[in-house]
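ok new one. same drill as before - structure tokens go in, u give me an amino acid for every spot. 162 of them this time. try not to just spam alanines like last time pls lmao
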């Protein structure tokens, strides 16, 4: 035991010297970006800066546009919730509406709706047509606008008939 202790005392406590860490034979290359910018490079840098700020403002206005779109979309979503329909349904319905609106005046007249229903193979009596209009012509102006049409179609989808 005493021998080992003596050995430990005699053993060098210093870390082994690091070899080859310093004084590497290859000198470092000079830093590349040390030279001053030429005029052209400065101009380029300036125009790049201008471009960046334009892009930034464009991005900002794009963001505003997005925000406005989101708000529009929100109100449209509300409409969809009212009608219980998805956007694609709305788009499809608008297509149908436009197809039924033969004279293209933006409203469905009785004869237009009748023709459309008959085109689907239904026999629509004038009495039935009057019933439909009484039920869904909310503003009682004798024609269906798109909203009234949507309500009618929704009931149609829900009940299988109108
Ligand atoms: Ca019409
Ligand atoms: Ca109406």
């Amino acid at each position: 035991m005493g021998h080992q202790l003596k050995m430990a005392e005699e053993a060098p406590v210093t870390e082994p010297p690091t070899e080859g860490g310093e004084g590497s034979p290859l000198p470092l290359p000079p830093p590349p970006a040390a030279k001053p910018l030429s005029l052209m490079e400065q101009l380029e840098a300036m125009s790049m800066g201008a471009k960046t700020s334009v892009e930034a403002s464009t991005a900002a206005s794009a963001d505003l546009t997005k925000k406005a779109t989101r708000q529009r979309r929100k109100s449209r979503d509300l409409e969809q919730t009212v009608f219980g329909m998805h956007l694609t349904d709305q788009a499809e319905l608008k297509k149908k509406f436009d197809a039924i609106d033969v004279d293209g005046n933006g409203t469905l007249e009785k004869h237009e709706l009748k023709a459309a229903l008959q085109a689907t193979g239904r026999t629509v009596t004038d009495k039935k047509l009057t019933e439909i209009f009484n039920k869904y012509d909310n503003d009682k102006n004798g024609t269906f606008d798109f909203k009234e049409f949507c309500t009618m179609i929704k009931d149609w989808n829900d009940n299988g008939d109108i």
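The radius of gyration is 40 Å. and btw The chain has six helices and no strands.
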